[in-house]
Amino acid sequence: MLILGIETSCDETSVALLEHRGGNALEVRANLIASQIEAHQLFGGVVPEIASRKHLEAVNPLLRLVKEQTDLSDWRELDLIGVTSGPGLSGALLVGVAAAKALSLATRVPLRGVNHIKGHICSTFLERPDLPLPMLCLVVSGGHSDLVLVRDFHTFERLGRTRDDAVGEGFDKVARSLGLPLPGGPNLERAAATVQKTGLRFTPSNMEPSFDFSFSGLKTAATQAFKKGQGSPQEVAYAFQTSALTQLARQTKRAIEQFQPRTLGLCGGVAANGALRAKMAEAAGDLEFVVPTPILCTDNAAMIGAAAFFEARDHEFPSFSIDDLGFEARSVWPIDAASQPVP
């Protein structure tokens, strides 16, 4: 079986082709990503209107390139198309959804709208198809900080979420205040890695008894500390990262103790952070621990194709229907609702 994935939820355009190898095993035959970092560099962050235009410029060339690189002779050879339909930037999502609907209509290949967070979770199965369930998954990115209990491929329970800024957003905004270039998160991590110890401390937010997170106060504290000259950029980066990761690990450990999962998963763009990977591996203890390779942590279409496959498999791979094209892009779509098809 061949599955095409399309991802345009934020500032990266991605198209991927997967092949089902049996069971949960999916081979990534192509996973192309067009970055927009240079286009947004001047503004210090993602500009939604620019992101949408860049997606328009990139999506068709990427589709052609995937076809060439995988020797796909005809789009009708596909068995399924998956596209991110939410959550994300509305204009950016519309580009991918429109492209996927057009391709599905022209080829009569079934199409499924995919929840972006569910895609991140399914990236763990691209890394390890044999993962035992239930899995506790920490999804951390520029737009999301969710702690999700995955009982099976269509049952997701969000245990906790950020009440304000996502952790990746906090990384990016603190990096910007420190004068670090885009991408903010990776550059803040590199700055923090130059420091072994500092007297500067930020207290992690305590959200107990909930499993929620909060990073807004931490972001403000770090920004103000630097403005007041309380530490160098490297020291502030180190103190901010230490506090943020401490909060993530503390809530994850509490959830492990209460829900007793068999696997701990880490995914999303911030999962590429080496310090976080090490801290979550420690938190996992005797559990199976999985974190995708960095290319599968970022927004990518391979994870969207995987999510579409697992969802369609549970519904016996329905044939093409014009009614399946009636879904819309959704800027807000909680993972709890991802077990239902897009209305």
Structure write-up:
- The chain is an alpha/beta fold.
- The protein has two domains: 2-121 and 297-339, ATPase, nucleotide binding domain (Nucleotidyltransferase, domain 5, 2-Layer Sandwich), CATH 3.30.420.40; 133-292, Nucleotidyltransferase, domain 5 (2-Layer Sandwich), CATH 3.30.420.40.
- The chain is built from eleven helices and ten strands.
- The protein has helices spanning 37-41, 48-69, 90-107, 116-127, 167-177, 184-192, 216-227, 233-259, 274-284, 294-297, 301-314; strands at residues 2-7, 12-22, 25-35, 80-86, 111-115, 135-140, 145-152, 155-161, 263-267, 288-290.
- The strands form two sheets. A five-stranded mixed beta sheet has the order 3-2-1-4-5, with helices on both faces. A five-stranded mixed beta sheet has the order 8-7-6-9-10, sandwiched between helices.
- Helix 8 (233-259) packs parallel to helix 9.
- The longest helix is centred in the C-terminal third of the chain and has 27 residues, at 233-259.
- The mean pLDDT is 94.
What is the topology?
Layout: E1 2-7, E2 12-22, E3 25-35, H1 37-41, H2 48-69, E4 80-86, H3 90-107, E5 111-115, H4 116-127, E6 135-140, E7 145-152, E8 155-161, H5 167-177, H6 184-192, H7 216-227, H8 233-259, E9 263-267, H9 274-284, E10 288-290, H10 294-297, H11 301-314
Parallel strand pairs: 1-4, 4-5, 6-9, 9-10
Antiparallel strand pairs: 1-2, 2-3, 6-7, 7-8
Helix pairs in contact: 2-3, 4-11, 5-6, 5-7, 5-8, 6-8, 7-8, 8-9
